[in-house]
Amino acid sequence: MEILDSGFLEALVAAAKSNSRLRQHHNLHQNYDDPSQCLLNAIEPDSYIRPHRHTSDPKEERLFAVRGLMALLIFDDLGNVESILAFGTERYGNDCAVGASIPSHAWHTVIALEKGSILCEIKAGPFDPSQPKDLASWAPREGTKRANGYLNRLHKLVSEINSK
Predict the structure, then answer these.
(1) Which domains does the chain carry?
(2) Which residue in 75, 93, 92 sits closest to 84, CA to CA?
(3) What is the model's pLDDT at position 163?
(4) Sheet with 81-88, side-by-side order of all strands
């Protein structure tokens, strides 16, 4: 039995803050062969997750907020933002989504809108590590200066949408 209490969540957030990528995942499934792949991912606001989709291993992905506030961005094939969904925990009120399902063909990314945010990702298994997610060629690679600027533009876009 694994207990996911506030101490566990704090430790996951601390690990994310000390990680150069500013995020840290924790698998809840036992192995890649499990029929359900579930993990927690602590994400800080300056963490860049390159937009991607899952057509190589076409399975719907479900995201749920465990803690904090995040934004899911969906893109078209050219990299234009098609939709933005803020999602978070109940403290953000009844109008805030708690999660979303993402079709395998949809280009997407998630950004944290506040420190200490944690999401739960669920996909059908098994997981084949030789079939990684498909990274968007129109988005900058992680760890580059262009990625920092791109992430800042995404944050600005989300902020503009949320202020309306």
Answers:
(1) 6-162 (2.60.120.10)
(2) 75
(3) 65
(4) 81-88, 69-75, 107-112, 52-53, 134-135
Whole-number average pLDDT of the chain: 93
Contact 62, 104 (CB under 8 A): no
Tokens at 157, concatenated = 């876009």
Strand stretches in 3-137, DSSP E: 23-27, 36-43, 52-53, 61-67, 69-75, 81-88, 99-102, 107-112, 117-124, 134-135
**Between vectors from CA 44 to CA 162 and to CA 13, what angle results, nearest 5°?**
130
Q: What's the Cα-to-Cα distance from 118 to each of 41, 93, 144, rounded to whole Å?
A: 5, 18, 24
The pLDDT of 44-65, averaged and rounded, is 94
Instruction: Give phi and psi for 101, each to the nearest 5.
Output: -105, 135
CB neighbours of residue 118 within 10 Å? 25
C-alpha span between 72 and 110 (Å, rounded): 5
